[in-house]
Task: structure prediction
Amino acid sequence: MTILKIAQLGHPILREQARELTRDELLSAETQDFIDDLIETMRDADGAGLAAIQVYRPLRIFAIEVRPNNPRYPYRPPIPLTVLVNPRLEPIGTDMFDNYEGCLSVPNLRGVVARHVSLRVRGWDRLGAEVDEPAHGLRACTYQHENDHLDGKVFVDRVRDVTTLATWTEFDRHHRAAFAERARALVERFGS
Ligand code: NI
Result:
């Protein structure tokens, strides 16, 4: 497996529209190897998710995972490894959560983005099997963050109150405790 290079904010590829895959393309050894590399790269960087476009492959694929004690997101409950291909997200209801987000393509910056707390998630798993399931809470927020990458969007585009922008150190000093409290309430409500 290979650790891939992660595109940083300002690189034009992050603004491209990723394209869908066919099942044959997804099942090719080349794409399956790429998905292994995507997962390995996400884990190496302690990300909660990583989209193919962030590693210079404008395909509609992303991986999500939060392992226990992730140093970037110590307040988050674990999310099992999930790979989603050609995803379609549909909000359920109108409830929103002000999520403090970071991104492996946006070095040392976090900011508040309003996300839907409940989604219907459709698409394929990495072997092309149909996925159709709900996602709630912080997990739903992560889906929306990764799905934005597939449409050339980065979380900073959605930060409405730019005074929430913070470096990781200042987030830890001034915002993490209050956010972790709100995140805990969300997790209690949804279990994720
Ligand atoms: Ni990101």
Observations:
- The longest strand covers residues 79-91.
- The pocket of nickel (II) ion is lined by residues 103-105, 145, 149 (CB under 6 Å).
- The chain has a mean pLDDT of 96.
- Residues 12-190 form a domain with the Peptide Deformylase fold (CATH 3.90.45.10).
